Amino acid sequence: MGQQTRKRKQKAGKFVGRGAYGCGFAPSLRCAGDTKPGEFSKLLESKEAAGEYAIRTLLEPIDPTQIFFLYPLKLCKPSRNLDPLMNRNTTFKNLKKCNIVSIDNADARLIFYQNGGPDLSTIEKLPPQDYADFFVELSQILQGLRLLHSNHICHLDIKRENLVVKPRSGSFHFRYIDFGFAVNTAIPFVPKKVYTNNYYIWPSEMRHINNLTGDRIPDFNKIKDAVGTDANLLREYLLQKVDVYSLGRLLFSILKNLIGLSISSENILFLTDNNVEFIPPVASLDWFMDLKFYILFPYIRLVKAMMDPSPFKRITAERAFFEYGLLRPQFRRLFTKENLQTHLSAVRPNLKRGFMNMVSGFVGPRATAKVRPL
């Protein structure tokens, strides 16, 4: 028993990834004086760690049990026992890539988090048996965005890398991470310049605003002038819905990448394309038609509304959450194990063409049904 304990004390956390300003370890590295690791830790320089830890005071009051957001639990100095490990362990060669120029205990800090599971960028394909649970619980990220908006917070950096998912009791738990580029929309500011060719703005494309902790958001990319746009309108409409746009784009990428949606371009008006050879078996026709009209069409219609080029027409986070809620019972109804085994297995050789292309490539008795606009 004693030997096992000593081994645990000498073992450093496993390097699991790096970000712009820190490296992640799971299980965590240890604080000075601690003997047991936690679930997950980030090693950062003290200045960056202080700014990241400050996010806790802003998110904990609105999500005290971390249902929707993962924020820091603890800030400490790393154990001095890490020094020899850093010198000989190959994983620590990644530290300089994380902008950690010094690993001295005086400069390095550890921040502890719950382990929220892998981020969505690491999930390449989704097994069909997980379709129902995955897409039903995906509503958590829309509910989380609604909660942020109701508290005057705009995430500004929504992407697959900043959403983590963890299996729980046969289901999935989705949460947001990385609020370094989030802003308080209740605080007056003027976004001086924004990209106008992409119809949305990113934090790296905005000047003269601060993040939630009061730090200036840096400029990373070339910035173009916003022509003929009133600053107040930018603040009220563009900023508060830029994360809706980003989340809509993410929802589309999930459908495209996890289910195998295949299209010739990123133009989401592809639903009118019927140039597909595949015709489903007669016994599966009704299921595919239901899939088309009760899941795929409404899903893409929602994505289009979230990604409307005009921020004046783009739907709110509240409306997006409501519309996605209408899809949840349809996921349960159509993505049953029996349905997937019966109908999806019959078309498995054609899946390389893309799920949506197969479904949109034929007409049936409901093809003339009216599609409710958002």
From TrEMBL:
InterPro entries: Kinase-like_dom_sf (IPR011009), Prot_kinase_dom (IPR000719), Ser/Thr_kinase_AS (IPR008271). Pfam families: Pkinase. Residues 10-327 form the Protein kinase domain. One of its GO terms (biological process) is mitotic DNA damage checkpoint signaling. GO terms for molecular function: ATP binding; protein serine/threonine kinase activity. GO terms for cellular component: cytoplasm; nucleus. SMART domains: S_TKc. This is Protein kinase domain-containing protein. It comes from viral metagenome.
